Amino acid sequence: MRTLFFVALAGFALAQEPQFTKDNRLMKPADYREWVYLSSGIGMTYGPARESAPGDNPAFENVFVNPRAYKAFKETGAWPQGTIFVLEIRKSESKGSINNGGHYQSDLQRFEAEVKDSRFADGWAFFGFSEATDSAQAIPKSAGCQACHSKNGAVDNTFVQFYPTLLPVAKAKGTVKKAISRE
Amino acid sequence: MRTLFFVALAGFALAQEPQFTKDNRLMKPADYREWVYLSSGIGMTYGPARESAPGDNPAFENVFVNPRAYKAFKETGAWPQGTIFVLEIRKSESKGSINNGGHYQSDLQRFEAEVKDSRFADGWAFFGFSEATDSAQAIPKSAGCQACHSKNGAVDNTFVQFYPTLLPVAKAKGTVKKAISRE
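Predict the joint structure of the above. Result:
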């Protein structure tokens, strides 16, 4: 009985860690909606090429992180090996039910994962998923994810400057790596 | 050792349940950011009085629910006794760090809780919190929270029509109580 309990507990914990195939493809994180939510943005744009008008219903982006990594960050201000972020992109809608202004979230469009793991040359790697994807290869370095995160992320490779409950932790622990312009 | 483990586990579970004072004030939920995230909106407006232009930085609203209630909902499409929702209201900002368009979340403004508990006449009650509030009395019925939720919520007293991962569950379980206009 006790063994069964610990097997169940181990299975639960395992589902919250990055899982790889033999050739280092990331298995689709199945239960990320039950991980810890960090923040959302809507229609965020990061460069001149994307500064065009976002239209009437710009996409929402939600960020989740696995609970073990969140707990470690709260204690240390740093991300441990095996940290996995999910950035979920959802459509927005404006008129529906009793709502007549602003935006709320609807269908999932796609999601991306970022993993801290020493098996990757830069220590972090990025992966893209759609509903139909079971596993994904790391996005090539030429896509620029790594370069932008490494240059602009407030803590390590991550945009903690946009996570309002974690930025104060990083400041208190002294892990913010550079001046960040939103302050 | 085993006893200590179960005491710790019980303490953890207790922190995710609504806690009341002797006079039925709701204790401030301390750890709701570690509960299950349901969705976010920005600048949502529900009636003619609030249809005015929301300004450059309309507020974000994030919704969280306690994990036990979420798990029960996934299984049954209904909310159990002891369900507690938190609606968190945060400021939005637009220009900061590398962001030059759209909106991201910043400071907490206030949060509200909705609890399902038979100690309240309507079976549900609403509570308002700020940073400084340790416990809160149920918001009077005259404020209209109950009337609007009961009339317009897709499932029981809750706006499941705005929670994109739960609406399909409610439909599959047959617990959507009325036609909802966003469909």
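The first strand of chain B starts at residue 26 and ends at 27.
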